[in-house]
Predict the 3D structure of the following.
Amino acid sequence: MATLAPEPGGSDNSITALLAELSAGNRDVESRLIPQVYGELRRLAAHYMRSERGNHTLQPTALVNEAYTRLVQQPQIPWQSRAHFFATASHLMRHILVDHARARRAGKRGGLQRQVTLDDALLPSSERTMDVLILDEALENLAQFDPRQARIVELHFFGGLTFAEIALVLKVTERTVKRDWSMARAWLKGELSKSP
């Protein structure tokens, strides 16, 4: 699982400080922000695509560029922290990949489908792979009865955020995040074991 590197504290060039300036409308900070977030975004993208087939048409660099472009084009997002930025980035990456898989499926009509390997915690067998669309549907179903659990799975498994960072983003305790993660994992394991 990808994890975010720690942020140097207190500097005017910290990601959190730069995001605050960007939220205030200072577009000039982008030139300092890009080098600070690009590596982390690249690691998140690589984590998402680690188990992809070799000839996948969407590469990690393209995923990072698309996600970053969408992030900075959002009208004045009030960025709360570095964790909030990467949480939003992980959510965007998931949806970019799902959109890409849907377009590919529609174009191929049953042809090759994008495969995502999940860790042992979510699947009965570490050898099993599944279509990203099946996983997305399972997460959407989970969100119907517990949106916070679905968001925790997205942030931790896909976004690489620690439980402490997730607690900060969701404004709950770390203990709550860990409890919800355990329940969500168990529920998803059951759901995904039903998939062909």
In short: The CA atoms of residues 44 and 78 lie 22 Å apart. The helical segments are 15-23, 30-49, 60-73, 82-108, 132-145, 147-158, 163-170, 174-193. The beta strands are 115-117, 129-131. The longest strand covers residues 115-117.
